[in-house]
Amino acid sequence: MKLILGSGSPRRKELLAQIGVVADDICPPEIDETPLKNELPRPYCVRLAREKVLAVQAEADDIVLCGDTTVAVGRRILGKPKNAAEAAEFLYMLSGRRHRVITAIAVRRGEDVWQRDVVTQVKMKPLSDEEINWYLATDDWRGKAGGYGIQGPASALIPWIGGSFSAVVGLPLAETAALLRTAGLPIMKAGS
Q1: Catalytic: which of 25, 62, 68, 117?
Q2: Would you say residue 191 has pLDDT above 60?
Q3: Is there a smaller number of Cβ atoms within 10 Å at the N or the C end of the chain?
Q4: Rounded to an integer, what is the distance from CA 2 to the centroid of its chain?
Q5: pLDDT given for residue 192 in this prediction
């Protein structure tokens, strides 16, 4: 049995290490992440996590872990910005507002798939043009849903969250640990 992390995210790898889990292999799947017509953020995120975990090639006894993180403003899905202009658009939209960060995880072993999703409320302070330009100049927005990463420089822009910090970073650790144990991975045991 080996654990395959179906994600190229260095943040997910670091979060797993916090609970003593190191993936034996990293195999990010290639799937189409385009939202379906009228698809809402939470079902979208749950669907992507499931499609990702099913797309990873694995032996029958291997455990595959995949996740997807989506930032939602109302019904609007804010994915990873294509460029700095789109990142700025996202930041202006989030400025002074609460929004939701949805992280869905899926674990597969053989034919069995277990899933959980976590919704965290996040409030971004009202942002000035200067603050947005400062953040864009850090390049920390690249590859991040909603155009920001809470664990980096953007932490100075976020005065409040309600929910799971690790889920906003990209992997809800309590839920991930529970699913991995359910799939048979011996984690968080004395002496391991």
Answers
A1: 68
A2: no
A3: C
A4: 22
A5: 46
Domains of the chain by start residue, with CATH: 3-182 (3.90.950.10)
With a CB cutoff of 8 Å and minimum separation 6, the contacts of 3 are 21, 22, 23, 24, 25, 62, 63, 64, 65, 180, 185
**Is 32 noted as a catalytic residue in this protein?**
no
> Measured between alpha carbons, how far is residue 114 from residues 45, 67, 118 in Å?
15, 12, 14
| pLDDT score, position 190 | 54
Q: Is the pTM above the cut of 0.70?
A: yes
pLDDT tens digits along 60-79: 999 999 999 999 999 999 99
Cα-Cα end-to-end distance for the chain: 16
Contacts of 101 (CB under 8 A, 6+ apart): 69, 70, 71, 72, 119, 120, 122, 145, 146, 163, 167, 168
DSSP track, 89-113: HHHHHHTT-EEEEEEEEEEEETTEE
What is the token pair recorded at 106? Answer: 């899926």
- Residue 15: what pLDDT? 95
- Cβ atoms of 84 and 136 closer than 8 Å: yes
